[in-house]
Specification:
Elements lengths: L13 H11 L7 H19 L5 H6 L7 E5 L6 H11 L5 E5 H16 L11 H11 L4 E5 L6 H16 L3 E6 L17 H10 E5 L6 H6 L5 E3 L3 H14 L6 E7 L2 E9 L2 E5 H5 L5 H10 L2 E7 L2 E2 L3 H17 L2 E6 L7 E2 L4 H14 L2 H4 L16
Parallel strand pairs: 1-4, 1-5, 2-3, 3-4, 6-12, 9-10, 10-12, 11-13
Antiparallel strand pairs: 7-8, 8-9
GO biological process, one term: cell division
Keywords: ATP-binding, Cell cycle, Cell division, Nucleotide-binding
Protein name: Cell division protein ZapE
Length: 388
């Protein structure tokens, strides 16, 4: 996209209209680069809605061309996730899916591993990639939205061409966000020349657009803010309410879900790339480190209400809280929270005393201007691989 000045566009598409509504309500300040991106997403949405859906037989034998998608790249905090939120909500299709890129690839690797253990893999013409693509095609998927498209792992790099060649051949449209342009994917990677055909394939199937927004909006949300509140009275909740509206631009939010290993984690409130949980929602339910990784990759900002003092009666909750903070910290997620007691008094269980020292140290750092000013860490450095 060009960063040159241009006439104010006619806001006719659903993404542009949703963006304009947020700007009119003061939830964001309109940015010319974001407006251009919204218009490109309008075009993808229009193409999908104009395309006549085909039945399974039609998709298998007619091999439809997918609607040209979009690959939106730019630095962190420029609004890519927010625009993807608006686009995904605006496309009234049932056959759509949005998922973090590394989660999607984990699913593909897990499917390949399962196929290789099955009797079907013994056939001479067995194709594990075809085996994992087939149920995707059978589901009727027309739109795949992938957040944070970034390739570091050689296993993913060698798989992507075969995988997406089959998805595109079956009419799946891709919309992706990334911090890097396609030509820089898997840069300096081992045997990168074998990865180049995928870049060519990708550029044929999507419009590549930069998002050179002027400001890092994520950092502005937290500038000068007190992100922690202490006590159990109404003042602590009011402080978190105020912080929530600050980071969501005044959007109240609505319930959502995070998919994790074939199940759904309820999110009480989500808006503008942020989520709000009660302590019990995360630490008094059977969630583990992998679930917290999923949550950390879905949201750039999280508020937790009502973190209690954790004595021996709350050992399990304390262990989950330690895992949660580790994952949020490793990812660089911005944290707001209300605590019943000062940080140094949180851990009162001898069983978790040593681990809690690190947690308190990280909580201290997570409220610092330095931490709040940093970008999210690359997903590939924190997400474990399921590659066989």
């Amino acid at each position: 996209m060009s960063s040159k000045s241009r006439k104010t566009p006619t806001l006719q598409g659903p993404v542009s209209a949703a963006y304009a509504d947020l700007a009119a309500r003061g939830a964001l300040s309109a940015d010319p680069a974001q407006l251009e991106a919204a218009e490109l997403l309008d075009g993808v949405a229009a193409g999908l809605l104009a395309e006549k859906p085909k039945g399974l037989l039609g998709r298998l034998f007619d091999k439809p061309e997918p609607v040209k998608g979009l690959y939106l790249y730019g630095e962190v905090g420029r609004g890519k996730t927010m625009l993807m939120d608006l686009f995904f909500a605006a496309v009234p299709l049932k056959q759509k899916r949005r998922v973090h890129f590394h989660e999607f690839m984990d699913e593909i690797h897990a499917g390949i591993a399962a196929f290789r253990k099955s009797p079907k893999s013994k056939s001479d013409d067995a194709d594990p990639v075809e085996a994992v693509v087939k149920p995707i095609v059978k589901s009727g998927l027309r739109l795949l939205c992938l957040d944070e498209f970034h390739v570091h792992d050689i296993t993913n790099a060698m798989l992507l061409y075969r995988l997406f060649d089959k998805l595109f051949a079956n009419g799946v449209t891709l919309v992706a966000t990334s911090n890097v342009m396609p030509d820089d994917l898997y840069k300096d990677g081992l045997n990168r020349q074998l990865f180049l055909p995928f870049i060519d394939l990708l550029k044929r199937q999507v419009t590549v657009a930069a998002l050179p927004a002027a400001r890092d909006y994520r950092r502005l949300k937290f500038a000068g803010q007190h992100v922690y509140a202490f006590g159990t009275g109404p003042e602590a909740k009011a402080a978190m309410d105020q912080l929530w509206l600050r980071i969501t631009g005044g959007v109240a939010g609505e319930p959502g879900i995070v998919e994790s290993i074939g199940r759904e984690i309820p999110v009480p409130l989500t808006a503008m790339g942020a989520a709000r949980f009660g302590f019990a929602d995360l630490c008094e339910k059977p969630l583990g480190s992998r679930d917290f990784v999923r949550i950390a990759h879905h949201f750039d900002s999280i508020i937790i209400d009502g973190v209690p003092q954790m004595d021996r009666t709350k050992s399990s909750a304390a262990k989950r809280f330690i895992l949660l903070i580790d994952n949020l910290y490793d990812r660089g997620v911005k944290l707001g929270a209300s605590f019943a007691v000062p940080l140094e008094q949180l851990g009162k269980d001898d069983k978790t005393a040593f681990e809690f020292q690190r947690t308190v140290s990280r909580l201290d750092e997570m409220q610092s201007e330095e931490y709040l000013g940093k970008a999210l860490r690359d997903a590939s450095s924190t997400e474990p691989s399921l590659a066989p």
